[in-house]
């Protein structure tokens, strides 16, 4: 398809310019004239193009081939090759607003699924602002709507066009139907929420009487003028924003009331949380560049713009800022409105001070093109960085405050523990604190990068960290856009896992669809490696989501269990090769790894002494002599011996985890004291060092036992180490007491070589992911060889896991790896079986 536009000063000018024009499929007429003056235009277009779908409206300004026009009319002619159009028009009844919207879309929704429109253009004429209920039908049926409200500065003269007829107080909709039609849309709103959240404690209709139990006028004076009286003109630039019933409300002060209240442009209910909202065109300049660049790469064939009449974004017909950047993609066609329509997965909103667009093409194949970077306007005097700094600073303060209860409840920690040092995101401990101490999370999404290990191996750990930071930034930008309008917080759970908590009461199916689309977009996105921009990488994700309530408002799980359930859903998605899974869809007869019954089963196993150790020996590669054995956790559940792979991630979210660690420590202590010639390796995670009772038990263990190098502490989840200055003294304390230190799973997930080496471990355990195919992969052979040489140069022994055949074993011997461990040498043995060898 393609579109052209023609600007005409008069009907005679129109007749002349249409001469020789091929009949289009869709005509959009936007004119600055009254309904009476528009009649000849409608008649001529009907005579000239009787088979075309013809719509239009009164518009004070319009856009023709990228230029803004203040007079005459703009005619947009669109030609479709693989799509067809259908239309409907109904009166707009402001007494039965929701019913008007239902009637407008009823013929479209009555069609079979094949003939459902991919996108709608809706134009409406009303004397008053359109109310949100008009588009309630779009929320229920997931309709994609663009368009706007007609308007002229002279009241009573506006109109809408449908075919040959002109109407007032009427709405018209055109549906674009095509199997191969794809559409993209976005909205740019020039505002920024500034300051902390405040509670509306008294309101009546559109009058806000009190905020935080103080007169509303006093709040405005306190924050905008340090307590001095403030003019209404200045206050007008600062709206109050909130989200009510999934609809964003931006209320502007209209007048001061005698009792200290403020008459607002929109009603904000008592009990709503509000923030100040400042309107300024510079705020969103930087944030929209990636969006427009992405649009540019998608090969749009037509872009229709619906812009707010309040936006002064042109000078002598030449567009400035955002319009100018969009014009770099394609010459724009469109109109200015007195309210713009924009659809998200949460329904259609009526925007103000906004620029919206609908970009369409008929290829349907998802092609992308190499595109020149979109050029920013002169940014020397831009205020955008300052606004973004203010907004991000307040957002981080609020998120830290929400986690503060966790910090206070654990006096041994400080607020540094709440953040991930690499990305600046809040961390797992912050999320656990918020889940425990606040009741403000409706949904939790856990995303894991599945190919993170491969990226580590190929590009190194710093590049992988940088890639994770890029992903975090991408998520925050996409979720923070005005087109979504949800409250959220991002957390880094581990090396390759990020969590997003949603604080808005939105139906689970809409959040699920949002993250399904996000995950798909992320997997199609290209990320660049640090210092090597030419190396573009893609990410593979598995995503799990958990909600407190289901679609019908029934309880699914406690908020405190959201992380457990989201992790279960993520594992289920990965096992079943699904992009995303939701806890509400987990089968009732869930298999062991998805069932919360594990918590009860493990608790009973602890009570019944059914938590025990299996031992997998490891051997000297030169002599073949057994050096020691790693104590591996096992549980007896329903008479079966069960691996921790089925329950450990789940149990780590509970207090049972520390009890399991203490149980394993006690079993190792008994064996070391009973059998003086054996050596044992015990797995500990960073969580163990941060748990007061576990740390205390370890110190007591070393106080009463002289291990003399017979106990090796293997640190698992080494990627979770954040503060090396904190953990090093603890590790050194245990080493001085006779323990050896091994870094486990080296090469898996995040492994910061420099920092881990700074811990001066005795043993570096190479993860199975870089060992199991070493007999076939020359790159892995070189990686292992260099790692081994580095470790030996520092006086560190190396140990290889996953020795599963003789070829792997021989390669490791040739590379002079010190210790070997794996099923080819010995599978994990029960305590009795292992000790019988000694």
TrEMBL record:
One Pfam family it belongs to: GGDEF
GGDEF domain residues: 440-584
SUPFAM superfamilies, alphabetized = EAL domain-like, Nucleotide cyclase
The EAL domain covers 595-838
Q: Which PROSITE patterns match?
A: EAL, GGDEF
This protein's name:
Sensor domain-containing phosphodiesterase
């Amino acid at each position: 398809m393609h579109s052209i536009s023609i600007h005409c000063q008069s009907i005679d000018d129109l007749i002349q310019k249409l001469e020789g024009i091929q009949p289009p499929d869709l005509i959009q007429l936007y004119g600055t004239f009254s309904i009476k003056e528009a009649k000849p235009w409608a008649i001529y277009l009907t005579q000239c193009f009787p088979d075309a779908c013809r719509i239009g409206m009164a518009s004070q300004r319009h856009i023709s081939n990228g230029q803004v026009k203040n007079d005459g009319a703009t005619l947009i002619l669109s030609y479709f090759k693989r799509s067809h159009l259908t239309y409907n028009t109904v009166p707009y009844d402001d007494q039965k607003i929701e019913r008007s919207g239902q009637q407008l879309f009823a013929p479209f929704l009555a069609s079979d699924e094949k003939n459902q429109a991919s996108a709608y253009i809706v134009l409406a004429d009303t004397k008053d602002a359109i109310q949100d209920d008009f588009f309630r039908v779009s929320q229920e049926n997931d309709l994609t709507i663009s368009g706007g409200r007609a308007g002229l500065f002279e009241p009573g003269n506006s109109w809408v066009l449908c075919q040959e007829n002109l109407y007032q107080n009427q709405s018209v909709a055109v549906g674009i139907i095509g199997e191969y039609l794809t559409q993209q849309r976005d909205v740019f709103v020039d505002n920024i929420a500034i300051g902390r959240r405040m509670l509306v404690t008294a309101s009546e209709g559109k009058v806000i009487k009190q905020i935080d139990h103080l007169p509303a006028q006093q709040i405005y004076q306190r924050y905008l003028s340090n307590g001095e009286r403030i003019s209404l003109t200045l206050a007008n630039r600062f709206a109050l924003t909130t989200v009510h019933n999934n609809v964003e409300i931006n209320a502007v002060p209209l007048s001061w009331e005698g009792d200290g209240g403020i008459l607002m442009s929109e009603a904000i209910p008592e009990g709503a949380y509000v923030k100040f909202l400042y309107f300024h065109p510079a705020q969103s300049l930087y944030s929209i560049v990636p969006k427009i660049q992405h649009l540019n790469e998608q090969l749009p064939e037509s872009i229709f713009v619906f812009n707010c009449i309040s936006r002064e974004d042109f000078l002598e017909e030449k567009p400035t800022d955002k319009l100018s950047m969009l014009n770099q993609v394609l010459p724009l066609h469109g109109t200015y409105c007195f309210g713009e329509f924009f659809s998200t997965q949460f329904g259609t909103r009526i925007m103000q001070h906004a620029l919206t667009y609908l970009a369409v093409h008929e290829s349907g194949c998802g092609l992308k093109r190499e595109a020149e970077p979109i050029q920013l306007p002169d940014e020397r005097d831009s205020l955008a960085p300052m606004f973004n700094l203010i907004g991000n600073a307040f957002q981080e303060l609020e998120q830290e405050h929400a986690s503060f209860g966790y910090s206070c409840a654990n006096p041994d920690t400080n607020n540094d523990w709440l953040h991930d040092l690499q990305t600046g995101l809040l961390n797992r401990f912050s999320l656990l604190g918020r889940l425990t101490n606040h009741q403000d999370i409706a949904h939790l999404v856990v995303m894991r990068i599945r190919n993170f290990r491969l990226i580590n191996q190929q590009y190194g750990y710093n590049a992988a960290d940088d890639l994770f930071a890029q992903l975090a930034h991408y998520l925050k930008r996409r979720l923070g856009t005005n087109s979504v309008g949800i409250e959220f917080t991002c957390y880094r759970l581990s090396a390759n896992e990020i969590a997003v908590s949603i604080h808005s009461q939105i139906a689970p199916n809409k959040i699920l669809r949002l993250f399904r689309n996000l995950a798909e977009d992320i997997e199609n996105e290209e990320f660049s490696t640090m210092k090597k921009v030419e190396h573009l990488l893609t990410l593979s994700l598995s995503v799990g989501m958990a909600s407190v309530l289901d679609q019908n408002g029934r309880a699914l799980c406690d908020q405190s269990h959201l992380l457990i359930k989201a992790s279960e859903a993520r594992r289920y998605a990965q096992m079943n090769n699904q992009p995303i899974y939701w806890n509400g869809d987990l089968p009732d007869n869930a298999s062991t790894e998805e069932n919360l019954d594990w918590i009860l089963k493990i608790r009973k196993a602890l009570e019944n002494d059914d938590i025990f150790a299996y031992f997998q020996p490891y051997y000297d590669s030169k002599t073949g002599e057994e050096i020691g054995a790693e104590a591996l956790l096992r549980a007896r559940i329903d008479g079966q011996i069960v691996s921790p792979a089925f329950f450990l991630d789940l149990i780590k979210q509970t207090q049972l985890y520390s009890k399991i660690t203490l149980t394993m420590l006690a079993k190792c202590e008994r064996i070391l004291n009973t059998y003086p010639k054996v050596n044992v390796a015990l797995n500990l995670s960073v969580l163990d060092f941060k748990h007061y009772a576990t740390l205390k038990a370890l110190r007591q263990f070393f106080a009463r036992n002289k291990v003399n190098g017979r106990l090796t502490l293997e640190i698992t989840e080494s990627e979770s180490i954040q503060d090396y200055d904190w953990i090093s003294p603890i590790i050194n304390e245990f080493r001085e007491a006779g323990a050896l230190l091994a870094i486990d799973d080296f090469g898996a997930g995040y492994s910061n070589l420099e920092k881990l080496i700074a811990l001066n471990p005795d043993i570096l355990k190479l993860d199975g992911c870089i060992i199991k195919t070493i007999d076939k992969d020359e790159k892995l052979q070189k990686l292992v060889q260099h790692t081994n040489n580095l470790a030996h140069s520092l006086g560190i022994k190396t140990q290889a896991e996953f020795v599963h055949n003789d070829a792997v074993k021989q390669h490791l011997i040739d590379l002079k790896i010190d210790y070997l461990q794996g099923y080819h040498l010995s599978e994990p043995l029960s305590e009795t079986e292992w000790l019988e060898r000694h």
